[in-house]
Inverse folding.
């Protein structure tokens, strides 16, 4: 089977991912994080004897290297091997989209243009003559709609046709003076019988005139370059004189936009006069001077309320389910050690994490809605003024919101920032946005210490205060470590669009599966490890002396107190207990007991592990068979409120997890900054927890 | 006069853009350029950021960037 690699290229928000989805049917295997495409995503399927691989590249406005993610796409287009460019265009914004197409046409690759969102264009009375357009550009142009799946087979047919025939150079026209100079250079190359396997002579001439580095590098190797040089000098002199500028980029921009404008005027017809569209009316409310921000805060509050209240019900079922599983499995096992490993270690640990799946799903649903509807850039607009005061950029909002899901894609999403210092600063702040893995810890503690109707508010307060702390930290870092020039704020505000349910479901589903997978593998192993080091070595001496002592006691109350005391003493003598006791002094000023200290350290592996660690530690140390065996009740009983507050503050601030830290190091391209990040987060977490413990303690006592 | 001095809901035409090279290219690729008609559709509360409508799309800018865009009234 012949392999075909297609690069999907287009400006942001033209529906590339959606089109990839619609084209490949159910065979989609996108590995990126939905909404904001930060990594090259793959979709593979086969058709008519071709095995087709589509690479969904990050959207870009032009090939100018404006930001790091645009560079990813440009580098791919210039350096990697692929068979065809599928340029996706938003039919309702033809002229601007065509200016990128013009740049792509200059690359001298096989190309097909998909005019996406045809359904929308129809509604807006936009009529595009694709037949004429294909003829003008010498590139097949096909109207499609990924939403209604209109013309998918025609597009696929065209892709297969183009890729199996020889390269036909796209037609680009420039102003007379440029055409004249191009002709001179092309004629010279033709006369010298110069032949390049991939690029036509006109293409090379164009690359030379536009001063493209890669074409210069290519031509430099040939002896005829010496003769070419004076010709080029002459040509450039003419062009500069004519355009009245010394900057070739100015000339190129003007030529490209003139070409795009010309084509648009030739092929596009507006049937109806444009009336005030829906987006404008929604914007009148959502980015309203006074109402905009309160609406945003309200929506966020609603999301966290929903996360807690809607998640509560299935959470109780899952908790009950795992409780039942533990009991019934436990009843069938005679071996005490094996029983303890399975019930107290594996089931308690994994169950404690799986329990929060509904909350995680709701959170990711909210984030992907925010990303795909177009609301995200409105929030960036609303917050830019505010963020700017804290040394951040309006666009920082996008990675920061992603950070509420997981820090790993958030670090990658920071690539949309152009300036390195802005990027680093944003990345330092991302950790303050509590990630999804911390949600279980918060839900556990909020549920343990507050009534159901307050818990959602507490959750909201935790997230908001984390974000505010992040802003303050941003300001401090800005005036100390990351001094520098401001990055300009220029951002498109895309149309509001109803997201594709399939893509949303895909995002939530893949995140949920990742979560379950993590619980089933990583968390399971961690739970077993923690069970082991918290059960061994066995100390028979203590056990014997306590058992003897308990036997002498008469009433049940003192018996059970003694039993609990025995379990505590036993646990303290295990590996984990010894470890906990060693690090306890470090955490003691924060009000943590040794169990909490251990959970904090194990949370470095993944934040969910905190919950499973606490689950294992407290289920080993307490009466499992009693009614109040739920982890929440145990925690409410054995941890004081000030210590709990202090614990939450610590979890809120310290390092997200090892995996995220590795990604940070990769994205920051610096070990020094990674070291700073570790130091910075631990120091801040410790100091603020200390403060929180004492402030909470003061209020708690009075 | 430049774009930052224009009041809301007035249509103007862009004369020149005087930004440094990379920013200028970005503004071009977003569809701004001499001869284009634009209209300010929203100004943020503290007058830091503006939203402009341009043909079929909308763009957000800071006042600093708006100052780099010279415009003239449409007659």
């Amino acid at each position: 089977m012949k392999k075909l690699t297609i690069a999907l290229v287009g400006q942001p928000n033209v529906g590339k991912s959606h089109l990839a989805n619609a084209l490949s049917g159910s065979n989609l295997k996108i590995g990126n994080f939905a909404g904001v495409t930060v990594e090259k995503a793959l979709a593979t399927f086969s058709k008519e004897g071709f095995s087709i691989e589509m690479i969904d590249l990050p959207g870009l406005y032009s090939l100018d290297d404006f930001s790091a993610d645009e560079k990813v796409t440009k580098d791919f287009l210039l350096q990697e091997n692929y068979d065809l460019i599928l340029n996706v265009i938003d039919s309702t914004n033809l002229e601007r989209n065509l200016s990128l197409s013009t740049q792509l046409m200059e690359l001298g690759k096989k190309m097909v243009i998909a005019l996406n969102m045809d359904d929308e264009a129809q509604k807006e009375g936009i009529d595009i003559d694709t037949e004429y357009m294909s003829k003008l550009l010498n590139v097949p142009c096909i109207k499609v709609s990924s939403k209604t799946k209109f013309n998918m087979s025609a597009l696929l047919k065209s892709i297969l046709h183009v890729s199996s025939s020889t390269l036909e150079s796209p037609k680009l026209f420039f102003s007379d003076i440029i055409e004249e100079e191009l002709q001179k250079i092309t004629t010279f190359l033709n006369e010298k019988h110069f032949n390049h396997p991939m690029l036509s002579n006109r293409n090379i001439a164009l690359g030379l005139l536009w001063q493209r580095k890669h074409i210069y590098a290519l031509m430099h190797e040939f002896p005829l370059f010496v003769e070419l040089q004076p010709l080029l000098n002459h040509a450039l002199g003419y062009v500069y004189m004519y355009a009245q500028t010394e900057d070739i980029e100015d000339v190129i921009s003007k030529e490209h936009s003139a070409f795009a404008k010309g084509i648009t005027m030739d092929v596009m017809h507006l049937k109806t006069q444009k009336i005030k569209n829906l987006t404008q009316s929604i914007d009148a409310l959502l980015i309203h001077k006074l109402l905009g921000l309160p609406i945003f805060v309200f929506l966020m509050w609603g999301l966290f309320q929903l996360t807690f209240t809607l998640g509560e019900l299935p959470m109780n079922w899952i908790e009950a389910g795992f409780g039942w599983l533990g009991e019934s499995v436990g009843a069938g096992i005679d071996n005490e050690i094996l029983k303890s490993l399975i019930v107290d270690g594996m089931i308690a640990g994994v169950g404690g994490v799986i329990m929060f799946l509904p909350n995680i799903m709701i959170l990711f649903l909210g984030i992907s809605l925010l990303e795909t509807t177009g609301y995200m850039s409105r929030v960036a607009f609303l917050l830019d003024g505010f963020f700017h005061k804290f040394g951040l950029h309006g666009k920082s909002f996008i990675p920061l919101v992603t950070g509420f899901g997981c820090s790993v894609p958030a670090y990658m999403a920071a690539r949309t920032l152009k300036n390195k210092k802005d990027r680093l600063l944003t990345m330092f702040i991302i950790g303050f946005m509590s990630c999804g893995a911390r949600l279980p810890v918060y839900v556990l503690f909020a549920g343990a210490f507050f009534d159901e109707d307050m818990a959602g508010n507490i959750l909201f307060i935790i997230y908001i205060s984390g974000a505010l702390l992040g802003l303050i930290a941003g300001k401090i870092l800005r005036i100390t470590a990351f001094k520098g020039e401001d990055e300009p704020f220029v951002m498109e505000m895309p149309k509001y669009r109803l997201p594709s349910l399939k893509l949303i479901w895909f995002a939530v589903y893949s995140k949920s599966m990742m979560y379950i997978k993590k619980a089933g593998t990583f968390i399971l192993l961690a739970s077993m490890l923690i069970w082991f080091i918290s059960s061994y070595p066995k100390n028979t001496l203590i056990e014997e002396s306590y058992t003897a002592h308990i036997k002498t006691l008469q009433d049940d109350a003192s018996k059970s107190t003694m039993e609990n005391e025995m379990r505590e003493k036993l646990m303290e003598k295990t590996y984990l207990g010894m470890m906990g006791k060693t690090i306890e002094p470090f955490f003691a000023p924060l009000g943590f007991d040794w169990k909490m200290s251990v959970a904090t350290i194990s949370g470095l592996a993944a934040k969910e592990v905190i919950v499973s660690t606490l689950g294992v530690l407290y289920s080993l140390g307490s009466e499992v068979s009693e009614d109040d065996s739920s982890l929440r009740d145990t925690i409410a009983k054995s941890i004081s409120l000030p210590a709990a507050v202090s614990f939450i503050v610590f979890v809120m601030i310290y390092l997200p997890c090892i995996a995220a830290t590795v990604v940070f190091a990769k994205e920051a391209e610096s070990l020094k900054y990674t070291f700073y990040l570790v130091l910075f987060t631990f120091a801040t977490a410790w100091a603020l927890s200390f403060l929180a413990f004492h402030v909470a303690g003061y209020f708690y006592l009075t | 006069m430049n774009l930052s001095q224009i009041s809301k809901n007035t249509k103007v035409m862009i004369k020149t853009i005087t930004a440094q090279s990379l920013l200028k290219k970005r503004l071009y690729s977003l569809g701004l350029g001499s001869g284009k008609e634009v209209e300010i559709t929203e100004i943020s509360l503290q007058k830091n950021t503006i939203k402009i409508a341009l043909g079929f799309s909308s763009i957000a800018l800071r006042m600093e960037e708006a100052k780099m865009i010279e415009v003239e009234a449409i007659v």
User: Anything to note?
Assistant: Residues 29-38, 623-628 of chain A have pLDDT under 50 and may be disordered. Chain A has 31 helices and nine strands.
